Amino acid sequence: MIGAACGFLVNYHIQFHWTFKVSGPHSRFFMRYLIVSGTMFGLNAVIFWLATTPELFALLKNLAYPKLIPQPKNIAYWYVQVIATGIVFLCNFLVNRYYTFRPIKEREFNNARV
């Protein structure tokens, strides 16, 4: 848990200062970031839950796999991990870009400081 919390804080700092280069009150951006991160965690869990439904799990288990490499017993989970990572990565970036770290208009910024 400590590692996850440290990673969360470092990731927030990097996105605030480097990825999106925003300025303004941390209280606004951090609360949004916290909500978005929790939502993306939930989205990841839902994708994994949906993928374990018997029909979809059987489909993933029977996807083509290179014959030269021994197939792991749990190949369906590997496929789900790749799919979930791609979806959550894209959603996370877009939501952070257009909601969490959306630049503050001058009027909003002055109202937030009061």
Automatic annotation (TrEMBL):
InterPro entries reported in the protein's UniProt record: GtrA_DPMS_TM (IPR007267)
Membrane topology listed for this record: Multi-pass membrane protein
Coarsely, its chief localization is: membrane
Q: Which residues form a coiled coil?
A: none
Q: Where in the cell is it found?
A: Membrane
Q: Which residues form the GtrA/DPMS transmembrane domain?
A: 2-101
Q: Which Pfam families does the record match to this protein?
A: GtrA_DPMS_TM
Instruction: Choose one Gene Ontology CC annotation of this protein and give it.
Output: membrane
Extract one GO BP annotation from the record.
Answer: polysaccharide biosynthetic process
> Where exactly are the transmembrane stretches of this chain?
30-51, 75-95
- UniProt KW Thylakoid keyword: no
> This protein's superkingdom?
Bacteria
The record's keywords, sorted A to Z, are: Membrane, Transmembrane, Transmembrane helix
Task: Respond yes or no to whether keyword Membrane is given for this record.
Answer: yes
Protein's name according to its UniProt entry: GtrA/DPMS transmembrane domain-containing protein
Taxonomy of origin reads: Bacteria, Pseudomonadati, Pseudomonadota, Gammaproteobacteria, Methylococcales
